[in-house]
Design brief:
It comes from Nocardia uniformis. The chain has helices spanning about 20-35, 35-45, 50-60, 60-65, 80-95, 95-115, 120-130, 205, 255-270, 270-295, 305-335, 340-370, 380-390, 395-405, 405-410, 435-455, 460-465, 505-510, 515-530, 540-570, 570-595, 600-605, 620-630, and strands at about 135-140, 155, 165-175, 180-185, 210-215, 220-225, 235-245, 250-255, 295, 300. Helix content is about 55%, strand content about 10%. The protein contains 23 helices and 10 strands. Residues about 455-460 have low confidence and may be disordered. Among the domains are: about 20-135, Butyryl-Coa Dehydrogenase, subunit A, domain 1 (Orthogonal Bundle), CATH 1.10.540; about 135-255, Butyryl-CoA Dehydrogenase, subunit A, domain 2; about 260-405 and about 625-630, Butyryl-CoA Dehydrogenase, subunit A, domain 3 (Up-down Bundle). Strands 1, 2, 3, 4, 5, 6, 7 and 8 form an 8-stranded mixed β-sheet that branches. A two-stranded antiparallel ribbon has the order 9-10. A hairpin with a 2-residue loop joins strand 9 and strand 10 (about 300). By secondary structure, the protein is an alpha+beta fold.
Length: about 650
């Protein structure tokens, strides 16, 4: 059962083609040859990882994995393949978040370039990758953070064409050595958008002054100020001082520059969750080995009740992170103009998987205690990264807000139209739980049964059903080039995206006790949204909406976990333990919603309907704990 986790010593990467397998194995072998002692020493001494970049250059790892087929000059091994990129992200996270970071930021830096219509810039990027170069994404600023409308990177037009750029950027990974830095700025001769108005529709003219351009970190007008973190990775603050920007350096202008920023984040930040998975897998091996082998007061640490609970939850949590992430790859790779569901699942990958990783680290720290601070452990090296991942560029808050845009379309399939009647039933919002549950269940059943005939008779409903009908998403580990990711188009219209019905996969697994309980909670949330819909004022109350978003985001997270569990044949005991955890966490978020000052009386009443007690099963618990104890000694990095 230990093979449920990634084990570098036994993994064969069989799902990939021969060249991908070779490079993934070569990467693992490079780290194992380097050894744990030197890995940890380099991290403590903040040594720039030139040895790793030399390996990347000699094997052309970044060039092969990060060059789209259109820029591959016929090389059949070069393509943008989200599945193998995700696997590399897990491997690098497994050995050190600093190695993951140089890869991750290169991906972000390439995003605006590969989306550009500037063929010369793309050719330069492809050649630089082939030479072993790294890239950077110059978006953030110290004063403005993610408020890119207010950028102080200002470009002055030159009389004979082109610009000079002056301003600073902050939190820019790889900014010390990037061959090309994709920099976001604005023209001095155009008006700046008032960021306080960002919720309204902007005109093309208002966007016209913004642009992305490519800069070279080795240019004399590129002033590297410092590394803003105390780490092996380099997170730069830099200034451009009248930096010359020629026409061939311009990547995007106007509204397209904003779209390129958002779409780059869609592509690049997806890998946050995979880095977290890799780090958590390594930590679980260390925790399992330590806890099983240490004896206190005549008992193994794994025999203490509180430790047993923490380990079982942590292991199930990690399996959930892996299952969700694997399934999210399929939605990313199958995306297209007619299926943009990946935008929700992508946001949850960045937000939920990383936060589950942080929670796992917190719980495992309580298991290994002082051992987690010793200088021969991987655990403390990755700890800062695990607390940082959910917070990179406001990941949690930004993605909670983003996920809420999808909530009405996701939670209410066209077949749920009948549930709207709840809000018109006198007293439904504050009626006893049993009565409301019976009414909402009847409305849902009747609505779903009548939906198909109604859709044939009502043209508008027929159109809605067509938009919410998607072909089954297959497992995608084929060697295709994910070229759609670089032509995602405008980053708007999210509310028009339609989702297939989320309930069937839960019903398929309802024989597992805690999946059935969680389904009851999800349906109760649906009832709350129908009977006690957030008011106009609440929809401007970010604190209230985040409490609602915590509940909503758990449903698609659980959906994709079950979809992947069906594909992999995941142990039902682990699924039950995971949903035992989900039931508890869903209840906690329901209490939080209930306590919000702005919650209406109806919302307070209906939020209590979401609280459930998970179904305990000692035999299932022992099965899961046995899998954790089997991790002891299953993997140890070469010394």
């Amino acid at each position: 059962m230990t093979e449920a986790l990634f084990n570098p010593k036994t993994c064969e990467f069989a799902e990939f083609d021969a060249e991908s397998r070779r490079l993934l194995r070569a990467t693992v072998d490079w780290f194992e040859r380097k050894g744990k002692v030197r890995l940890l020493a380099d991290s403590r001494d903040r040594v720039w990882y030139s040895d790793f970049l030399d390996f990347v250059k000699s094997e052309k790892v970044f060039a092969i994995f990060l060059t789209p087929a259109a820029q591959a000059a016929g090389d059949p091994d070069k393509r943008w393949d989200t599945a193998r990129i995700a696997m590399m992200s897990k491997i690098l996270g497994f050995y050190g978040m600093q190695y993951w970071y140089v890869w991750q930021v290169t991906i972000l830096g390439l995003g605006p370039i590969w989306q550009s219509r500037n063929e010369a810039a793309k050719a330069r990027a492809a050649a630089a990758l082939d030479s072993g170069e790294i890239f950077a994404f110059g978006l953030s600023e110290q004063a403005h953070g993610a408020d890119i409308y207010s950028t102080d990177m200002v470009l002055e037009p030159k009389a004979r064409g082109g610009f000079t750029a002056t301003g600073g950027k902050y939190y820019i990974g790889n900014g010390n050595a990037a061959a090309m830095v994709s920099v976001f700025g604005r023209r001095a001769d155009k008006p700046i958008i008032d960021s306080a108005d960002f919720m309204r529709q902007m005109t093309d003219e208002e966007y016209s002054g913004y642009l992305f351009f490519a800069a070279d970190s080795r240019h004399k007008n590129y002033k590297l100020r410092r590394n803003v973190v105390d780490s092996q990775m380099y997170v730069a603050a830099f200034d451009l001082d009248k930096y010359p920007v020629a026409a061939e350096d311009i990547l995007h202008t106007g509204r397209e520059a904003f779209d390129a920023a958002m779409n780059t984040v869609n592509v690049g930040k997806f890998n946050l969750g995979f880095g977290a998975v890799g780090a958590c897998e390594h930590a679980m091996y260390e925790a399992g080995t330590h806890a099983e082998n240490r004896v206190l007061f005549g008992h193994r640490v794994t025999e203490f009740p509180q430790v047993r609970a923490l380990l079982a939850d942590s292991y199930a949590r990690l399996i959930g992170m892996k299952l969700y992430s694997e399934r999210a790859i399929d939605y990313m790779r199958s995306a297209g103009d007619d299926d943009r569901r990946y935008l929700l699942f992508n946001a949850i990958e960045k937000m939920s998987v990383t936060r589950h990783g942080q929670r796992l680290y917190e719980d495992v720290a309580d298991v290994i205690a002082a051992r987690g601070f010793e200088n021969d452990m991987y655990f403390p090296m990755a700890m800062i990264g695990m607390f940082g991942l959910p917070r990179l560029e406001g990941t949690v808050h930004v993605n909670l807000a983003l996920s809420l845009k999808f909530m009405p379309a996701y939670m209410f399939h066209p077949a749920d139209a009948g549930l709207a009647a709840l809000r018109y039933l006198p007293g439904a919002a504050i009626a006893p739980q049993g009565a409301v549950r019976a009414v909402s269940g009847a409305l849902s059943w009747a609505s779903r049964r009548a939906a198909a005939p109604a859709s044939r008779a009502v043209p508008k409903l027929k159109a809605e059903f067509a938009r919410a009908t998607h072909a089954p998403i297959p497992t995608r580990r084929d060697g295709a080039d994910d070229e759609f990711l670089f032509r995602q188009g405008p980053s708007k219209g999210l509310g028009k995206i339609r989702f297939a019905d989320w309930r069937p996969v839960f019903e398929q697994y309802s024989h597992i006790p805690n999946v059935a309980v969680f389904l009851e909670q999800a349906q109760a949330l649906q009832t709350l949204l129908a009977a006690a819909t957030p008011t106009a004022e609440q929809q401007q109350d970010v604190d209230f909406l985040f409490a609602l978003g915590e509940l909503f985001s758990m449903v698609p997270y659980a959906q994709l976990i079950l979809e992947q569990a069906a594909i992999e044949g995941t142990d039902p005991a682990v699924i039950d333990q995971l949903f035992d955890l989900f039931v508890r966490e869903f209840s906690k978020h329901a209490v939080s919603l209930n306590s919000k000052p702005s919650a209406t009386r109806a919302q307070q009443v209906r939020s209590l309907d979401l609280i459930r007690r998970p179904i305990a099963d000692p035999e299932r618990f022992e099965q899961v704990l046995g899998q954790v104890r089997a991790l002891a000694g299953a993997y140890e990095m070469n010394p």
